Amino acid sequence: xxxxxxxxxxxxxxxxxxxxxxxxxxxxxxxxxxxxxxxxxxxxxxxxxxxxxxxxxxxxxxxxxxxxxxxxxxxxxxxxxxxxxxxxxxxxxxxxxxxxxxxxxxxxxxxxxxxxxxxxxxxxxxxxxxxxxxxxxxxxxxxxxxxxxxxxxxxxxxxxxxxxxxxxxxxxxxxxxxxxxxxxxxxxxxxxxxxxxxxxxxxxxxxxxxxxxxxxxxxxxxxxxxxxxxxxxxxxxxxxxxxxxxxxxxxxxxxxxxxxxxxxxxxxxxxxxxxxxxxxxxxxxxxxxxxxxxxxxxxxxxxxxxxxx
Amino acid sequence: xxxxxxxxxxxxxxxxxxxxxxxxxxxxxxxxxxxxxxxxxxxxxxxxxxxxxxxxxxxxxxxxxxxxxxxxxxxxxxxxxxxxxxxxxxxxxxxxxxxxxxxxxxxxxxxxxxxxxxxxxxxxxxxxxxxxxxxxxxxxxxxxxxxxxxxxxxxxxxxxxxxxxxxxxxxxxxxxxxxxxxxxxxxxxxxxxxxxxxxxxxxxxxxxxxxxxxxxxxxxxxxxxxxxxxxxxxxxxxxxxxxxxxxxxxxx
Lengths: 309, 252
Known about the structure:
The structure holds two protein chains of two kinds.
Chain A: E1 2-6, E2 9-10, E3 13-14, H1 16-26, E4 31-38, H2 42-49, E5 54-61, H3 70-80, E6 86-90, H4 93-105, E7 110-114, E8 116-119, E9 122-127, E10 132-138, E11 143-147, E12 162-166, E13 175-182, E14 195-199, H5 209-219, E15 222-225, H6 227-231, E16 252-256, H7 262-268, E17 273-278, E18 291-294, H8 297-307
Parallel strand pairs in A: 1-4, 1-6, 4-5, 5-12, 6-11, 7-11, 14-15, 14-16, 16-17, 17-18
Antiparallel strand pairs in A: 2-3, 8-9, 9-10
Helix pairs in contact in A: 3-4, 5-8
Chain B: E1 2-6, E2 9-11, E3 33-35, H1 37-51, E4 57-64, H2 68-78, E5 82-87, H3 98-112, E6 116-120, H4 131-139, E7 142-153, E8 156-163, E9 166-173, E10 176-180, H5 192-198, E11 203-207, E12 219-225, E13 234-236, H6 239-248
Parallel strand pairs in B: 1-4, 1-6, 4-5, 5-11, 6-10, 7-10
Antiparallel strand pairs in B: 2-3, 7-8, 8-9
Helix pairs in contact in B: 2-5, 3-4
């Protein structure tokens, strides 16, 4: 009963929080071996060795592993898979790029975004953007799983696992890295922001979306939008929160001029505190709001912006 | 170059999902079904490739129940040239797993020899985010997932990908599997004349058995439950009261 956990390594550095949360989730499944792969990964491997619950660390350094390209990373993991019953990772975009490829190479299903471990082959995961929770039992000999990190606490850092170096798999040479662009905005990234301020169709125009942005900047928040606002051309598509956009769960979510269509609620209802400002008291958004204010947003939002100073 | 676009029939994104009382899944009887929104973006991108002279035929394929022919008609009305319906289940509640879908798609690719497969990054029902990557592994092709920009130049495609920290750009060798994200484009609506024309476009009907693929699920569904409901909130009377409540709650 051994677990191989793909550590989140970016430019040679370990993403400690995501990796430590995945380790905590994986501990119940067996002894955890962490794989740190990258063009440089030794420092990331040393950092991973300190995470509580890690039995062993494997470091694979090769130019082909430098930017987490799916093909060489999946080939490496598939080559190591013989020794493990579970192959897991935090559910990051990198892991979601790699793990299904690994699963298909091993002829097993992947189980994405697991939120709870029931036993070694039974797991809970959200479907329909969290509108339902499904418990599934795998009949595959190997289980390939990504863990939704928001649902697990991070393991501590008092461990001292042994670190071994291994070689990379042969690079299939199917893709090459060009560049990484870190989001240029001064605002926090939508999916990881602590506060999100979103506007809906009620905002009425692209110009008036400035009201939403001003409040967001006052709160150090990311800006979101409903699909209706995006479809109306008031906000860019990458601001879209909802089932067809980004799923967010900040500490504070402020919904302004958003009626609360089902597909929007699916993307934000796990936020800790939800505030809704809408002039229609019947708007469904009020059913999920902790604090609702029935008011004209063009009066309420500037006032709120001023008073939160 | 041929473009293959897999499309999935899912509950319309505007419909409230209801869990069946017996916990076996989500109720799909008498519910409005539509094309998976990410797949619409894939169809749109295929049409744009054809309009730009980089593709000459668009083949839409759907794997599931017979009713998925409606989803294929939508793809044909948008601008796909022909469709392949692969019937792999009789009961509308049966969801064919991404691994089985990828195996069938791999066979379709062998037959049709497309230069590119454009797929949605995930289906909004099972949210597994896996089919494109799995197909890529089975074919030994390159993969460019979560694409927000795509530029095909000869035997290479430059793909900008939506990743956690921002954007990553990679070059992938053609033929490739590209899975598409929201920012890639805004799908067109089918016009009424095109909807009429789509009824005359060819649609082949096959079964999973025709491709020799076993679609038996690897994951048994033990239960499906509603998530915990949120506790009821309060309506505040003014902006001042809102600010006060937010401070009390430690939210600002």
